[in-house]
Amino acid sequence: MEIKKAVRRSLPLQLAFYGPSGSGKTMSALMFAAGLSPNGKVVVIDTERGRASLYSDNKKVLTALPQGFDVIEIDAPYHPKRYVEAIEMVEKNGYKVCIIDSGSDSWDGPGGCTDIAEQAKG
Fold it and tell me: Which residue from 99, 34, 38 is spatially nearest to 61, judged by alpha carbons?
């Protein structure tokens, strides 16, 4: 631990879209990602059983992302280490924009943080 002079630096944007099922979170995230991506290269870490791919032929998405987007599909168990592995894969492959759809499974999905905490009891 140290005390040092604060210096402004760039950090990656972290943003959450929140709303009930069907409210447009994935579509909004894809449109937002298109505006952030310098080369139109966007990847979705999809824990929603392939739901992000339902937008692969959406006219609005294809207008914003003419080359489409890529996906990494993660199934249970949703241990946080699996998210870290997926993010490392994203970085290794040169993506600058990544959507995680959804982060809730890492908390309350099978093998997520709630399960980890329950197993640690006793």
Answer: 34
